Amino acid sequence: MTYNDIDFNHKTILITGGAGFIGSNLAFYFQENYPNAQVVVFDCFRSEATFANGNLQSFGHYKNLIGFTGDVVCGNINNKTDLALLDDYEFDFIFHQAAISDTRVYDQEIVMKTNVNSFYDLLNKAQKDGAVMVYASSAATYGSLPSPQTVGQESPENPYGFSKYMMDQIAYRFANDFPEMTIVGLKFFNVYGPREYYKAKTSSMVIQLGHQILAGKAPKLFENSAQILRDFINIEDVIQANIKACHPQQNGTYNVGTGTPRSFQDIADILQQELQTDLGTDYIPNPYAGYQMHTQADISTSKTGLGFEPKISLEAGIKAYIPEIKRLYGTDIS
Ligand SMILES: NC(=O)c1ccc[n+]([C@@H]2O[C@H](COP(=O)([O-])OP(=O)(O)OC[C@H]3O[C@@H](n4cnc5c(N)ncnc54)[C@H](O)[C@@H]3O)[C@@H](O)[C@H]2O)c1
């Protein structure tokens, strides 16, 4: 599937965070659709190290890349010597996905160092190489502002959201200083789909609830989950946005959601329908004060500025994902 006229064949493409969920899907997108593209994955891969919340410090996993035939450079974006390994290449496109993607890491120093400092280095590399820069921002830049979340009206409420917000500010300034460059930030909402399994507890509720149901358990949801709405976006539509971002009407940041919020209860119900179970729901109290009850991306500028058109409904996305959810059930996550 191709999304625009850009021929990525014979182009050199860097995907930071390419062993992670979105990055590995991008790597395979290019491999399958542009077999003569030179794709370079840069990722620190996972180690045993954990954050204070008990989650791993990085989720990149070699199993996401089995079958990938491009180059892999193992390195840390915090380390200038590692980043210098990329000087062996002159890139045409950089898709910058590497980050601490766990929104519940509250160590501000490590989040800011990893997500923000490295961005200067990668922007400088893009500028030197004349590369298009498409980077991952986040819906977390909006905090708990009321829906619809609209570009230009951000109010982050955790270090992760703030780090992405600062990346956006740096990108705006950089684009202003170097108007010949293409720099686009994509504010992903709740992404789900294949190759997210190794994000463990930070993977989407689609796979987590799917595996609860396959274990014969009622899916566990917060009370009032029919009223807790999120803008769930399928990985294929996220790939579409990344590709279209390479040729924007103008530089800037764009929302990547469907524009149609759905509830966590919807996910559980669709999964039970697809898996032909009738286990009910196990409701638990929501321990989070000030929990975001409703997200909905305003995608009007994404449509006009990128030509982005989300195609996959939650029903269709879950249906297509079921074989993969089944395949991964009970498999080793280490
Ligand atoms: N998945 C979502 O719903 C979502 C939503 C909003 C934004 N995002 C953003 O999209 C990007 C990709 O997210 P994802 O869901 O694929 O997460 P992910 O955790 O699977 O991918 C991030 C990758 O970056 C790598 N990484 C982390 N720290 C690194 C470091 N210091 N040096 C080198 N590599 C490092 C990890 O190993 C991992 O492979 C991230 O920037 C994330 O913040 C994702």
Q: How would you describe this structure to a colleague?
A:
The chain has 334 residues and is α/β, with parallel strands linked by helices. The protein has a domain at 12-193 and 234-257 and 295-311: NAD(P)-binding Rossmann-like Domain (Rossmann fold, 3-Layer(aba) Sandwich), CATH 3.40.50. Helix content is 34%, strand content 16%. The chain has 9 helices and 13 strands. It has helices at 21-33, 80-84, 108-129, 159-177, 205-214, 235-244, 264-275, 300-306, 314-328, and strands at residues 12-16, 38-43, 71-74, 93-96, 132-138, 183-188, 190-192, 220-222, 229-230, 232-234, 252-256, 262-263, 282-284. The chain has a 7-stranded parallel sheet, with helices on both faces. The protein has a two-stranded parallel ribbon with strand order 7-10. Helix 7 packs across helix 9. The two termini are 32 Å apart. The model has no long low-confidence stretch (mean pLDDT 97).
Percentage of residues in DSSP E strands: 15-25%
Radius of gyration from the alpha-carbon trace, in angstroms: 19 Å
In helices, the fraction of residues equals 25-40%
Beta-strand segment tally: 13
Largest pleated sheet: 7 strands, parallel
| Pattern of helices and strands | EHEEHEHEHEEHEEEHEEHEHH
Distance between the termini: 32 Å
Gross CATH architecture of the domain at 12-193 and 234-257 and 295-311: 3-Layer(aba) Sandwich
Strand order of the largest sheet: 3-2-1-4-5-6-11
Secondary-structure class: alpha/beta
Number of helices: 9
What is the overall pLDDT average? 97
**CATH first level of the domain at 12-193 and 234-257 and 295-311: which class?**
Alpha Beta
Q: Characterize the overall form.
A: globular
Relevant CATH superfamily of the domain at 12-193 and 234-257 and 295-311: NAD(P)-binding Rossmann-like Domain
What binds here, in terms of ligands, is: nicotinamide-adenine-dinucleotide
CATH names the topology of the domain at 12-193 and 234-257 and 295-311 as Rossmann fold
Organism: Bathymodiolus thermophilus thioautotrophic gill symbiont
Keywords: Carbohydrate metabolism, Isomerase, NADP
Domain NAD-dependent epimerase/dehydratase: 13-257
EC number: 5.1.3.20
